[in-house]
Amino acid sequence: MKCLYLTYDGLLDPLGQSQVIPYVQCLVAAGHTFTIISYEKERRSPAELEAMEHQLRLMGVKWLRLSFRKTSKTEFARRILAGAALLRRVRRDFQPDLVHLRGHMPAIIYQLSLLRVPHLYDYRGFSIEEWTETGRVRRHSLAHRLLRMIDGRAVRTASGLVVLEKSAGDALRSLYRIPDVPFKVIRTCTDISLYRPRRPAAGGPEDNLLRFVFLGSARPPSYRPDLALRLVARLLRIGLNCRIDFINESDHREIATAVRQVDFPSDRVRIVQVDHRNVPAALADYDCGLIFYDTTSPWTQVRSPTKLGEYLAAGIPVVALEGIHVLDELAVSTGCVRVVGQRQLMDPDGAGDGGELAAFIRKPEVEDACRALARRAFSLEMAGALYCGLYAEIAAGF
Fold first, then answer.
1. Long-range contacts of 381-387 (CB under 8 A, 24+ apart)
2. What is the pLDDT of residues 37-58, one digit of tens each?
3. Whether 361 contacts 210, CB under 8 Å
4. What is the pLDDT of residues 223-246, one digit of tens each?
5. Three-state SS for 223?
6. Do 181 and 215 share a structural domain?
7. Residue-range definition of the domain harbouring residue 288
8. Handedness of CA 30, 34, 38, 42 (dihedral sign)
9. Average pLDDT of the residues of the chain
10. Distance between CA 260 and CA 387 in Å, rounded?
11. Of the candidates 371, 248, 366, which has an alpha carbon nearest to the alpha carbon of residue 309?
């Protein structure tokens, strides 16, 4: 098929590089033709844009980009309308058989374009409901009703649907009537081949250092860097030698605020910027990966964290805030994940089970177990095959 792929994430953003380009590459290899429209941050340099354009050209993919600048509601409206107008122009020139909508913002843009091209709705998360839970959009307001109407129509008229977890599929069915079209659960996956064995700590006094990493976004209220810091602070208080690094591109101010809020020792925390291509190598320096989302909303509980597969592929066990369904399930069924409760972390006096947690992280067999779980449940090859099968089902329907 001739496919038009619309993503609100930039291809130069970590999600673009880990979750858009690899899947498109699999679909190109299966014989499909692609034009990608993405929103790129204004801070991206001409050299970065040129390098990405060259990479896509080698794949046989055409790339059209719009600028993303987070300033005002007026700028937001301009972005949306510019995307809708570009969709109409591409429809005229490219004549796609299918439009692949990655998430709710592309679905809104597509609806506003008034196109009638068959579309695949790749339902990445329940952002509209999360906005309502956090007060960004008032429930039953005109904006809320309009967003729900547009989103629901995108679901009902889809030629195919993707969700990230089985529980997300159940949640989607509780919101909208699901059409009788191909429907797949495809987790956020990673290229297992990029990861190498973990590196031991340098010799000397740091031999017993527990190296924690918090990868990716750390912006409240969706993410809870403060609770991750509380966990490590608790381990420090019971005498364990620990450090936490935030591998993060743009949330440095929020992380610094959390450090002050928790009164965390400044010599035990670092903020590190790592190019996405170097993340697999960087993760080899750590002993444990942290995943701390806010889990008070039922709509956040059905997430599929991108960093989960990345941690496991690097051979590092995961400690997470309880409440995300996939993490709670893996904590019960595997020896690779542990979950901790928010109430336990907020207790200033309790020592908790820090010793048991350290023993879990240091288990000799945990690295091999994590890699095996990554191959079994979070491999890019598995996700690519599912997408290719989905596209084949949609094409057969045409």
1. 381/192, 382/189, 383/23, 383/26, 383/186, 383/187, 383/188, 383/189, 384/22, 384/23, 384/25, 384/26, 384/27, 385/26, 386/184, 386/186, 387/23, 387/26, 387/27, 387/162, 387/184, 387/186
2. 999 999 999 999 999 999 999 9
3. yes
4. 999 999 999 999 999 999 999 999
5. strand
6. no
7. 193-377
8. positive
9. 93
10. 44
11. 371
Beta strands in 147-298 (DSSP E): 160-163, 183-185, 210-215, 242-247, 269-272, 288-291
Q: Structural domain tally of the chain? A: 2
CATH code for position 30: 3.40.50.2000
Same domain, 185 and 279: no
Specify which residues 154 forms β-bridges with: none
The strand pairing partners of 320, in sequence order, are 291, 339
Measured in residues, the chain has a length of 398
Token pair 């290719």 is found at 388
pTM over 0.85: yes
Is the bond preceding residue 221 a cis peptide, omega within 30 degrees?
yes
**Residue in the structure block whose two tokens are 């690899």:** 22
C-beta of residue 7 within 8 angstroms of C-beta of residue 38 = yes
The Cα 48–Cα 337 span in angstroms is 36
Looking at 45-175, which runs of residues are DSSP E strands?
Answer: 62-68, 98-102, 119-122, 160-163
